[in-house]
Design goal:
3 helices; disordered N terminus; four-stranded parallel sheet; alpha/beta; twelve-stranded mixed sheet; about 10% helix
């Protein structure tokens, strides 16, 4: 114990010297002290390891609470008996100037249900210690830009997860098919990483999903027809990948879907009429694909549609009559010739009987 105590003193002295050099305020004498007795000891030790591993002294929130996590407003604790042994159940440290790697010892916060580190500067792979958090419902390292490696297999065994958010990082490899084992998952956001391979067919069983966001990766192959089994889906975002083939034809089961975002792929074929019959449909982005044919007349019956962007495909023919042009907040059906990026064509429609205001408001490219 004496050796450990001397080592901690030396570490504290070293940190004080570095802090002084960079203009940080000096640490209090009890910075490396034991945890406050009001917190479960094992969990508080895990908190201290997180604090020390990610630059806690420079955090915006909780920087003064290395030994008293439950006194920080960004930490939720519960279960104390006579002021002793509280559990740490929630840690939400968004935009908190955290940097470095998440420690393996994070596994000691066994009562956690929410762990949210969005908008920091974390890097490296996800520690296996997370797999021991058997009550965890929310795991987010969104927009850290440096979390890397592949999605580990053990994530698929975290059966209590409801939200998994790794948006805007450096994750690689394929999207694990075993994620479909997460039967309670409501939101899956893997946008803005470097995933390759195809969309797993197994995802068709994830019927609890309200958000599926695989946007801005390097996914290939086709959109599985079985995606239409996701009957609770609110947001369907597969855009900015390298997907080919056609849009699934039978979309009738997506009765709750409000947002369809499939733009910037290499999709071909026609726009299915069933898309426009979805009763909650609000936003449709299909631009910069290679879709052909006409705009289905069913588009006019999409009563909640407010944002539709279809430009830079190979659409043609007559614009459906009775479109609610005046009610669209965003509308782009064509665009002038030359407005599309290399490799994409400009839609060319027949504008007979279309009011000039409608042509202008939806940026329609009319055949000469």
């Amino acid at each position: 114990m004496k050796f450990i105590h001397v080592g901690l003193i030396a570490l504290g002295a070293c940190f004080t010297e570095v802090a002084s050099a960079v203009g940080m305020p000096p640490l209090e004498n009890d910075t490396l002290a034991l945890c406050n007795s009001s917190v479960n000891e094992e969990q508080c030790t895990a908190w201290q390891e997180l604090f020390d591993s990610t630059g806690g002294a420079l955090w915006k929130e909780c920087s003064a609470h290395r030994n008293t996590p439950c006194e920080c407003q960004s930490v939720t604790c519960t279960g104390a008996v006579d002021g002793i042994g509280a559990d740490i159940v929630g840690v939400v440290l968004r935009d908190n100037n955290m940097f470095g790697h998440l420690p393996e010892g994070i596994s000691g916060m066994v009562a956690l249900t929410v762990l949210d580190f969005q908008g920091n500067h974390l890097m490296g792979s996800l520690p296996a210690g997370l797999s021991k958090l058997t009550s965890l419902e929310v795991l987010s390292v969104r927009e850290n830009l440096g979390v890397s490696g592949t999605l580990p297999a053990w994530i698929s065994d975290m059966s209590t997860l409801v939200r998994l958010d790794f948006r805007n990082n450096l994750l690689t490899g394929t999207v694990p098919a075993d994620l479909a084992k997460l039967r309670n998952l409501d939101k899956l956001n893997l946008r803005g990483n470097q995933f390759i391979g195809t969309i797993p067919e197994s995802f068709s069983t994830m019927t609890s999903l309200s958000l599926l966001n695989l946007r801005d990766n390097q996914l290939t192959g086709t959109i599985p027809e079985s995606q239409t089994n996701l009957t609770n889906l609110d947001i369907w975002a597969l855009s900015e990948n390298k997907l080919t083939g056609t849009i699934p034809n039978d979309l009738f089961h997506l009765q709750k879907t409000k947002i369809v975002s499939l733009e910037r792929n290499s999709l071909t074929g026609t726009i299915p009429a069933s898309l426009w019959r979805l009763p909650q449909l609000t936003i449709v982005h299909l631009y910069e694909n290679h879709l052909s044919g006409t705009i289905p007349v069913e588009m006019a019956s999409a009563e909640h549609l407010s944002n539709v962007v279809l430009n830079c495909n190979n659409l043609q023919g007559a614009i459906p009559p009775n479109l609610l042009f005046d009610e669209y907040q965003v509308c782009n059906l064509g665009g002038p010739a030359g407005s599309c990026r290399a490799g994409y064509r400009t839609n060319r429609f027949s504008c007979v009987d279309m009011p000039p205001a409608a042509v202008e408001s939806c940026n329609v490219s009319c055949e000469l």
